[in-house]
Amino acid sequence: MRTSQISRQTAETKISLSLALDGSGSSEIDTGVGFLDHMLTLFARHGRFDLAVKCDGDTYVDDHHSVEDIGIVLGSAFAQALGDMRGINRYANVILPMDETLILCAVDISGRAYLGFDAEFTSEKIGTFDTELVEEFFAAFVRTSNVTLHIRKLDGKNSHHIAEGIFKAFARTMKEACAIDEKFSDEIPSTKGVL
């Protein structure tokens, strides 16, 4: 089974995370950042990943360290769970509507970390959550997962819908890219023979 468990502790955060790629979409999320809890719950459900996250962070400062460090740990968890990436589809993309919002997301599980992020928010906050932290989360994720990820807002006005559309699109894209292609389940999906 393609699973991982990661723990990480710094002077700013203490995080434990478990991930099952071939799950049902169940989640137990307690990050100390309410809006991120909502986004990760959506991510687990729409990606059909089983995900548990517990974070004790210095949210008395702000949410930045917790959000970034959870991105780091989630990226590491995907890298660990995918192993040598034998048999995966590797590439996936989706254009996802969320009411007035339309989000494009594309991924290459390539072994090369890159984030292309072009999604402006119409407000600086969603509740108490700083919208600039959405990009910080994905920047941290790609650094440790070593994937190429592109996220584009094609349309959208409501900041909550934009963020939710991004996380749902990300979930659907990762689900497809991580899935095993049964016809080529023994192959590494690269002419190099390694990812």
N- and C-termini, Cα separation = 20 Å
Radius of gyration: 16 Å
SS-based class: alpha+beta
Assembly of the depicted chains: single chain
Number of strands: 10
* Low-pLDDT regions: none
Number of helices: 4
Structural notes for this entry:
By secondary structure, the protein is α+β, with helices and mostly antiparallel strands. The chain is built from four helices and ten strands, in the order βββαβαβββββαβα. Strand 1 (about 5-10) and strand 2 (about 15-20) form a beta hairpin.
Helix and strand arrangement:
Elements: E1 3-9, E2 13-20, E3 27-30, H1 34-47, E4 50-57, H2 64-82, E5 91-98, E6 101-108, E7 114-118, E8 125-126, E9 129-130, H3 132-145, E10 148-155, H4 159-178
Parallel strand pairs: 3-4, 7-10
Antiparallel strand pairs: 1-2, 2-4, 5-6, 6-10, 8-9
Helix pairs in contact: 1-4, 2-3
Summarize this structure briefly.
This protein has 195 residues and is an alpha+beta fold. Helices cover 34% and strands 31% of the residues. The relative contact order is 0.20.
Key traits:
single chain; 195 residues; alpha+beta; four-stranded mixed sheet; 31% strand; globular
